[in-house]
Design brief:
Layout: H1 3-13, H2 29-34, E1 39-40, E2 45-46, E3 50-51, E4 57-59, E5 64-65, E6 70-71, E7 74-77, E8 80-83, E9 86-88, E10 93-94, E11 99-100, E12 105-106, E13 111-112, E14 117-118, E15 123-124, E16 129-132, E17 135-137
Parallel strand pairs: 1-4, 2-5, 3-6, 4-9, 5-10, 6-11, 9-12, 10-13, 11-14, 12-15, 13-16
Antiparallel strand pairs: 7-8, 16-17
């Protein structure tokens, strides 16, 4: 394998660089995510998110990614590898320990509560609040 091939493979197989964790909760985390290809908005607060498919993920301005949340743009289903984009809109919040699967769209100002699982293909409407595993819309609206 040539050097370029090894670099490309390393990009996809190493989900996150350990040094990135030291920037959790600081204003430096969002610019660091931009380096490997995450489309990251301005004023994003990241308190310890893990973003696996960096080039398939976009996060809007003013979003909040809480500690231990995971954005995973792939899955292995019945022996078939599937992947798609994840779009987190402006002003969205992903709670502590929440999991966002591939093909999920969170529209402006929506909230995925702590320890919730946004299933593949979910569209979380603007200002809505989702909770549970699998996450579903609750009657209360997101604060904001």
């Amino acid at each position: 394998m040539d050097a370029a091939g090894a670099e490309h493979e390393r990009y996809w197989k190493v989900p996150s660089v350990a040094f990135v964790r030291i920037f959790d909760g600081t204003p430096f985390k969002a610019p660091i995510w931009r380096l490997p290809g995450v489309r990251m908005g301005r004023r994003v607060f990241d308190d310890g998110a893990a973003i696996i498919e960096r080039s398939l993920t976009s996060v809007g301005d003013g979003a909040t990614l809480n500690m231990a949340c995971l954005l995973q743009g792939h899955s292995l289903e019945d022996g078939v590898f599937k992947s798609d984009r994840i779009s987190i809109g402006p002003g969205c919040t992903i709670g502590t320990g929440a999991f966002v699967h591939y093909a999920v769209t969170m529209e402006d100002g929506s909230l995925l509560e702590h320890d919730s699982f946004a299933m593949k293909g979910s569209t979380i409407r603007p200002g809505s609040r989702w909770l549970g595993n699998p996450a579903t819309e609750t009657t209360g609206r997101a604060a904001g």
